[in-house]
Amino acid sequence: MEIYIVNPGDSVDSIAAQTGTDATQIITDNQLIYPYALAVGQALLIGQGMRDPDRSIYAGGYAYPFISEWVLRQTLPYLSGLFIFSYGFTKEGNLIAPELPDEWMISLAQSFGTAAILTLTPVGPDGNFNNLLISAVVNSSEATDNLIQNLVSTMSAKGYSGVDIDFEYILASDRDAFTGFVQQVAQTMRSYGYQTSVALAPKTSAAQTGLLYEGKDYPALGEAADSVLLMTYEWGYTYGPPMAVAPINQVRRVVEYAVTEIPASKINLGIPNYGYDWSLPYVRGTTKATTINNVQAIRIAIEQGAQIQFDSLSQSPYFTYEQDGIAHEVWFEDVRSLQAKFDLIKEFNLRGCGYWQIMQWFRANWLLLADNFYILK
């Protein structure tokens, strides 16, 4: 498959003629809507017949139980693991199930040969990550034992194949206790035939300061868990200034550090499946970006007559537009930025990738992934 950048005057029919591809395939693969308008600078995935990938990778994707069944059915053929988000817990180690049923997701995943993974998060009643809840459990052998047994019971009863520990904002003082918690979880899970993964904040050095980083011991956690996910996204985020969500120059720095501490065969690269639309001027503490999906970003550009640019440093697409007298800046992912991430997986021979999140269908991403790799099942 190849990537074609739309030029002024291009149409689907003219691109099909230039590339020797069926116009209907271009429309389908890129989720174009009638009358199939294009944005100048838009990156299109053009199918010329799938290449023969030279390696297999693990591909995971996070999803909430309110995901559209249609979207999940479309995505599961491309996933090794479906990470169901999420289970919480109390300070005593009692497990809290998602508000909506997850059994249907587990059953559907199994029908596609995809492993269902229970995602465990320390989310409090306010919906935010609660580091005091983490502290209460990882420093109590009774709470830890109770939580692990509850995990095993639930996973066995529902058909889960593994657990993903997604704890964020861990206190620096709880670093070793958290590592010990992961070690105990992983050892117990292995005895039952289950896998354990850990989500890691995107560190670039062992001495990196900050609440996101100090509680995560890369080498110890990499040794304890069966695999890790580098959360290499959210440089551009809801309350931050306009910029790429996952700039490849920053993602590379994280990977370069991670492989010095953790075997590459255990590392999954985090990939965002979304973008942001900021109103301008950006005012810290006031401006709040709107989350959009990647297909939606293209449609906004078309509707607003915006030309899509591509930043060479971050390897990410962006554009600006004005609506109702308000300027906007949009950053998102396209097949060019995704290919840069796939190339990084190849360069460092990583285990695979993990998507946050798969709630919105972006067909070109999955076609490109399958063009680069075989997906482990």
Description:
The chain is of the alpha/beta class. It folds into two domains: 1-49, LysM domain (Membrane-bound Lytic Murein Transglycosylase D, Chain A, Roll); 56-274 and 336-375, Glycosidases (TIM Barrel, Alpha-Beta Barrel). The protein contains twelve helices and 17 strands. The chain has helices at residues 12-19, 23-29, 69-75, 103-111, 131-138, 141-158, 175-191, 218-224, 248-261, 294-304, 335-347, 363-372, and strands at residues 2-5, 43-46, 56-63, 81-89, 95-96, 115-120, 162-165, 195-200, 227-230, 267-272, 275-280, 290-292, 309-311, 316-323, 326-331, 352-356, 374-375. Strand 4 (81-89) and strand 5 form a beta hairpin. Helix 11 packs parallel to helix 12. It is globular and about 70 Å long. The model has no long low-confidence stretch (mean pLDDT 97).
Based on the structure, what is the oligomeric state of the protein chains? single chain
Tell me the CATH topology of the largest domain.
TIM Barrel
Order of helices and strands: EHHEEHEEHEHHEHEHEHEEEHEEEHEHE
Structural class: alpha/beta
Taken together, the total number of domains comes to: 2
Classified in CATH, the superfamily of the largest domain is Glycosidases
Percent of residues in beta strands: 15-25%
Spans where pLDDT lies below 50 across 5 or more residues: none
The share of residues in helices is 25-40%
The coarse overall form would be globular
In short:
The protein is an alpha/beta fold.
List the helices and strands and how they pair.
Blueprint: E1 2-5, H1 12-19, H2 23-29, E2 43-46, E3 56-63, H3 69-75, E4 81-89, E5 95-96, H4 103-111, E6 115-120, H5 131-138, H6 141-158, E7 162-165, H7 175-191, E8 195-200, H8 218-224, E9 227-230, H9 248-261, E10 267-272, E11 275-280, E12 290-292, H10 294-304, E13 309-311, E14 316-323, E15 326-331, H11 335-347, E16 352-356, H12 363-372, E17 374-375
Parallel strand pairs: 3-4, 3-16, 3-17, 4-6, 6-7, 7-8, 8-9, 9-10, 10-16
Antiparallel strand pairs: 1-2, 4-5, 11-12, 11-15, 13-14, 14-15
